[in-house]
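Action item from last meeting closed. Structure (591 res):
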């Protein structure tokens, strides 16, 4: 999951203007929840010159609280916020990406390609294009660039772009929403044929040129609305829109719509409550989740047990809306028992169980008076690994709770997410091979109650303009994914995830040795190196035998061997080499 933006102003003749960058910078903060790992902006000024600022960290850090916006002139641009999927999180993979040929293309991508290695082979052997990172976003950009290059023209038009996109769709499989910019030409946006990842377009009157119109695309409608854009429409599955400078948007269904199945996890957790996705209000869908979960609680526990519950307490903030409607349906008082520290990352994103456990207590604190001597019903949006839930239950008991019942607004998460959200490996998921009773015991609660999958789907579908037959991407709950999934992909995903964690684990092991707190495992990793086992876990190397990571099937093992044979040492971070990126300049006069 990432956040993407695309903006083109109606006033294109003001070469000194940084209005596009200023608006994109503001919009990053409205979408910051979609990605806290890295962010960036690329703009295009007169003469087709492209400027960029991007890097690891949140928007305030990368843009030095906005002071770097002044170095991003131009009337159009792209913005991106990265949430890392399985793989590297080097700053070289911060977006937007750029290729100079053909025509100077910048690219922002949200989603995941599940045939990435096939694309890598095609680019290497047939297209002869070099890919410098492990990011599938860079792969998609190069596939598009290659198709566009096939026109052989000095200048392209809308038809060339639509035709190139159609051919690109024929090669790529997965879920995506993308924005792109052609130097001196305009911007475009497009969405996968299943509608898994969201993308909206809005317009507003130009603030500096009478009669002109600004157009902006974003992952969520809230970013547009807060910047004064209206007439907001969804880019449809398989649809693309092209906006040339000084012209109106041109829409085209570049490939047939194969489904209309937005990722239901957007409504459960990721999207802001003040967003509307594909005509469905996130806020109202969460209200419905609360009502339906309340009915499930009564059916599961019985009315007499429900009467023993003293208060309903949400785990802030995503579950607040659902907990309030659940409280209303059960006629049990709703209280805020936890206080959230807003300046901490989302915990399931954090690497390592220990880090997540510590982060829970940094993120949340209790109000003891709301727990003391009470039977409490805690409501959360989901339970992923169970690490956070177990720590929360422990905090509730420390605050004096007599009994703790834990309710999840979503069903048990039992499978990997393959369209751009790296929740966890299946082996790490608490619901993997555990029933409800075992999960309750694991997190220390008297009861755990889950929303049913049918109720979750209905909570959102009842609000859909397409009617109650609306479908969703629900693979994390049942293993039935919208797109075809190639054989061996899940093994590839697990090993890739483990390989990306290997360096982090080794660094932590070295730190533990330096501080004198290393155990046998840490010592073995440092002295004998480490490997990734068949489950994608980082473990000490045994008898000097290094585990090959998935052979050559995913290409990462091959590239790893190539690096080793060339003598290139592993590095913790790499920077983008395509454009000068002043975010990496150590001395630019900013204080």
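Sequence:
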């Amino acid at each position: 999951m990432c956040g993407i933006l695309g903006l083109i102003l109606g006033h294109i003749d003001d070469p000194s203007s940084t209005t596009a960058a200023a608006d994109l910078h503001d919009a990053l903060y409205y979408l910051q929840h979609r990605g806290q790992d890295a962010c960036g902006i690329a703009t295009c000024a007169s003469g087709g010159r492209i400027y960029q600022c991007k890097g690891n960290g949140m928007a305030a850090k990368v843009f030095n609280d906005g002071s770097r916006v002044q170095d991003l002139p131009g009337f159009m641009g792209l913005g991106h916020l990265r949430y890392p999927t399985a793989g590297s999180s080097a700053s070289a993979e911060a977006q937007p990406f750029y290729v100079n040929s053909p025509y100077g293309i910048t690219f922002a991508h949200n989603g995941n390609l599940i045939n990435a290695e096939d694309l890598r082979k095609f680019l290497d052997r047939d297209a002869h294009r070099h890919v410098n990172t492990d990011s599938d976003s860079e792969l998609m950009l190069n596939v598009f660039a290659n198709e566009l290059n096939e026109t052989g023209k000095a200048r392209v038009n809308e038809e060339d772009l639509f035709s190139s996109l159609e051919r690109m769709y024929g090669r790529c499989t997965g879920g995506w929403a993308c924005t792109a910019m052609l130097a001196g030409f305009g911007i475009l946006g497009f969405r996968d044929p299943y509608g898994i990842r969201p993308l909206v377009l809005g317009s507003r009157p130009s603030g500096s040129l009478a009669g002109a119109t600004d157009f902006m695309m974003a992952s969520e409608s809230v970013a547009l609305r807060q910047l004064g854009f209206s007439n907001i429409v969804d880019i449809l599955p398989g649809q693309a829109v092209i906006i040339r400078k000084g012209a109106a948007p041109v829409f085209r269904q570049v490939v047939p719509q194969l489904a209309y199945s937005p990722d239901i996890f957007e409504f459960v957790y990721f999207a802001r409550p003040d967003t509307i996705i594909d005509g469905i209000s996130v806020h109202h869908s969460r209200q419905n989740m609360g009502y339906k979960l309340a009915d499930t609680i009564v059916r599961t526990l019985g009315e007499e047990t429900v009467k023993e519950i003293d208060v309903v307490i949400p785990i802030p903030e995503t579950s607040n809306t659902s907990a309030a409607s659940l409280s209303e349906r059960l006629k049990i008082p709703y209280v805020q028992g936890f206080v959230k520290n807003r300046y901490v990352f989302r915990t399931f994103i954090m690497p390592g169980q220990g880090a997540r456990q510590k982060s829970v207590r940094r993120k949340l604190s209790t109000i003891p008076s709301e727990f003391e001597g009470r039977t409490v019903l805690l409501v959360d949006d989901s339970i992923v690994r169970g690490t956070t839930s177990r720590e929360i239950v422990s905090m509730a008991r420390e605050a004096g709770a007599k009994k703790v019942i834990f309710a999840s607004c979503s069903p048990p998460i039992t499978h990997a997410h393959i369209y751009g959200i790296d929740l966890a490996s299946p082996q790490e998921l608490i619901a993997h091979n555990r029933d409800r009773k075992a999960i309750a015991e694991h997190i220390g609660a008297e009861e755990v109650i889950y929303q049913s999958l049918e109720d979750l789907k209905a909570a959102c579908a009842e609000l859909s303009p397409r009617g109650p037959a609306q479908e969703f991407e629900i693979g994390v709950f049942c293993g039935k994914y919208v797109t075809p999934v190639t054989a061996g992909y899940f093994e590839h995903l697990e090993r890739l995830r483990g390989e990306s964690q290997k360096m982090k684990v080794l660094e932590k092991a070295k730190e533990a040795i330096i501080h004198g707190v290393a155990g046998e495992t840490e010592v073995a990793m440092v002295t004998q190196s480490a490997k990734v086992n068949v489950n994608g876990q980082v473990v000490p190397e045994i008898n000097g035998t290094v585990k090959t990571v998935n052979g050559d099937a995913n290409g990462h093992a091959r590239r790893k061997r190539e690096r080793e044979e060339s003598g290139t040492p592993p590095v913790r971070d790499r920077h983008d080499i395509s454009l000068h990126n002043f975010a990496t300049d150590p001395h630019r006069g900013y204080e």
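Note appended to the action item: The longest strand covers residues 105-113.
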